[in-house]
Amino acid sequence: METLALILAGGRGSRLDILSEDRVKPSVPFAGKFRIIDFTLSNCSNSGIFNIAILTQYLPLSLNDHIGSGKPWDLDRRDSKVTLLQPHSDWYAGTADAVRKNLAFVEKSGSKYVLILSGDHIYKMDYRQMIKQHIESGADLTVAAKVVDLSEASRFGILEADAKNEIVAFVEKPKQPKSNLASMGIYVFNTDVLVRKIKESSIPDLDFGAHIIPSMIGKDKVFAFKYYDYWKDVGTYDSYLQANLELIETVDKIPLDMYDPNWKIYTKSEDLPAVKVGSKAVIRQALLSNGAIVAGTVERSVLSPGVVVHPLARVVNSVLLNNVEVRPGAIVENCIIDKKTVVGENAMVGFGTDLTPNRENPGLLSSGITVLGKHLKVPKNMVIGRNCRIFATADLAKQPDNIVPSGSTLK
Fold it and tell me: Structure pTM?
């Protein structure tokens, strides 16, 4: 195989907090029936890249179970396969250190090029175009880059490129960005160059953005591949909810077309029956996944497989993960609710106009979103405010006065 794809899927996704409490970020459900990593895997399959290794680390069981042999993405081929790689001893200390700890695998692959990908972004890309530019430009390294809002630029590796797209400067997460051309964390290396650069370094927490790429500027041929389509890092509650709800816009406004027959997004699907809609149900702008039952009202929301919304219940501007149940008369608004949680009769979750930021971690929740963990039982008639974080270990039955004030964290 000429190209080996390495998917970095070991990040904890700490800003996703409750959603990544017992799963890695790439394994977090998205868009109803999918997982975040499905987009990267589908890009590989649609690009004709079938020699893939996935570098896992934290809490890999959910991800390993989801991927299995790779059959949904056509990766269980006789002449190629998907390989799951985990740290043998010390954990990965940086993105390039993850590759360093699996360098023997890279060398043994015999590939001419290595495509390094992140498993936690939402986008559709034909990697063949990037590899083609890499070969034609004679590059040692090609970095996929996208223009971002200047106010967001300090979150990314920022690069400057000349008229020929050769990168002349690269700074990882600069406080004062001189450009808004951001690295997407997607790289094509000549295999011999990648191996050499990693072996030359003794930095323990070796990272592509902080160390490898800056060390190559001005010494090696490093080019930018400019990407102009949809790409999003759903690494925060706000971006996660926004990206999900963007998918329910009208056809002319949808930023990511999930219905393109020429570029399908594949996943491991559960065998569940078709969606069932009751006679008094009201549904406006929603994604409903297989096995969902709606007898109440659903507006501007995404329902994952097996979700049940009972009569007189109301779900608005929310994402409900697998097998969540919203019982009669309950109201769920501006919420992200993890798997198998039950919202009791006439409960109100994400209620009110009090936008007090989350007291324990205001950086995570301040826009009004309330997040509930897995397997919770919300008592009937309970009122839960906004910007609340309620972990799976919380016992809501013990909450005084059946009220959780806005900005609360319960563990």
Answer: 0.93
